[in-house]
Amino acid sequence: MTSTPTAVGRVRRAPAATVGVRRRTLAVIGAILAIALAVVLSLAFGSRPVSIDEIADGLFSWTQGRTPSAIGAIAVQERIPRTVLGLVAGAALALSGALMQAITRNPIADPGILGVNTGAALAVVCGIAFFGISSPFEYLWLALGGAILTAIFVYNVGSVGPGGSTPIKLALAGAATTAALGSLVNAVLLPRTAAMDVFRFWQVGGVAGAGWGTMATIFPLLAVGAVIGLLCAPGLNALALGDDVAVGLGVHIGRTRVFAAAAGVVLCAAVTAVAGPIAFVGLMIPHVVRMLVGPDQRWVLPLSAAGGAVLLVLADTIGRLIGYPGETEAGIVTAFVGAPVLILIARRTRMRAL
């Protein structure tokens, strides 16, 4: 008699496992198709629509190193760098947001809300205003330093008091830090018209200034940050069960947090250095991915990267269309889409510690 319920339980659990595998498989296939569609749309639409034949001519000309034969094909070649930067930057920002949410166990954590973007922006602003920097390499290291210092400051402030660092305290510390650093950015820029002219387009966030040399500067850091972040996935799964359980499973919780946090900060800072402080990508995408495939970080992290790439490329394409004959920066589009998502998450999340 005792074996029957067990057998029934196994039968009932099997379909659930099958559905989980099916859903994750469909999510992977959907992500691949969405990336392909986003790339085609990015190459096809802009100040001048481009046909499929012109896209093919532009791509073949680019790969073979020859001059394209049509104006549309030339437009395709001009759009290739910004499409590649959109894919890479979106993937890095979404992966950074997923890592920060896993570390803090906070669904509204992302580089923008925790102040990392603003810290990187302040460092770049100071470099432009006081030291006259202009190269992507200088932007990169200043943004990296500002992001790291801001992340350390927010974590220390959020850890003060009983209970140590909690999701709510970290979010409040990040929001306060973002407001303070944003004020400092304005204080530095307002008296300096020349610095403001250099900074104002970068501040909005976008991929219009993409170039192969710029991307070559950040690719090594992005690759290292992405590999480290993905390797932290099993440890982050254990941390989600609680520190005591994670220690019992043999996970070094301090090392896992440090490596995952470092990877998230590096990814965010490298993108901010070349594309500006693009907000909400790291907030929206991991939340949507968890709704689709569950909380397993081995799936959440890579699918978040894919989703972020799709979102930023589509945001850049939409910005080119709605801003015609000019263009609207991708950072404005992601903020417009991300604000309702933040409100939805806040309404659905129970803040038990309040």
Automatic annotation (TrEMBL):
Keyword entries, A-Z: Cell membrane, Membrane, Transmembrane, Transmembrane helix, Transport
CDD domains, per the entry: TM_ABC_iron-siderophores_like
rRNA-binding listed as a keyword: no
UniProt keyword Cell membrane, yes or no: yes
An example Gene Ontology molecular-function term: transmembrane transporter activity
InterPro entries associated with the record: ABC_BtuC-like, ABC_transptr_permease_BtuC
GO BP field: siderophore-iron import into cell
Main location: membrane
Transmembrane intervals: 26-45, 83-100, 112-133, 139-158, 170-190, 210-231, 259-287, 299-318, 330-346
Pfam families: FecCD (PF01032)
Gene3D superfamilies in the cross-refs: ABC transporter involved in vitamin B12 uptake, BtuC (1.10.3470.10)
Localization: Cell membrane
Gene Ontology CC: plasma membrane
Membrane topology category: Multi-pass membrane protein
PANTHER family, per the entry: FE(3+) DICITRATE TRANSPORT SYSTEM PERMEASE PROTEIN FECC-RELATED, FERRIC ENTEROBACTIN TRANSPORT SYSTEM PERMEASE PROTEIN
Homology family: Belongs to the binding-protein-dependent transport system permease family. FecCD subfamily.
Protein name as annotated: Ferric enterobactin transport system permease protein FepD
Source organism: Microbacterium hydrocarbonoxydans
